[in-house]
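Operator note (shift B, R.M.): manual run for Putative pterin-4-alpha-carbinolamine dehydratase requested after the automated queue skipped it. Running by hand, logging everything below so the morning shift can see what happened. Input copied straight from the record, untouched. If output looks odd, do not overwrite the archive copy; leave it for review.
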Amino acid sequence: MANQKLTAEEIHTALVELNSDASQDWVIEDGKLSKTFKFKNFQQAFGFMTTCALYAERKNHHPEWSNVYNRVDVQLVSHDVSGLSVKDFDLAKKMDEFAGSIA
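Run finished. Output pasted below as returned.
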């Protein structure tokens, strides 16, 4: 199945589902699925990025992100469809799982 751009209604539904855990705070900014992750230190932030990078490479879906010390700012968008797709929400969910496993 080809990657397809989600409709506004599909995006809303997927965002509500993604944020169903009270600790989640994904938002749509400039047409991208965005979140800031904060960790105890640089080592945890970098470990998170490494784990995410390995997963993203396997899925051939790469985040736009930046890191400053303990903070990782993430933006997800599917450039091949010029918008948000299921791939973005799947990667976001995985990133939440990875962040939650860092102690």
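Quick read of the result: Residues 8-18+27-100 form a domain with the Gyrase A; domain 2 fold (CATH 3.30.1360.20). The chain has a mean pLDDT of 93.
Leaving this for review. - R.M.
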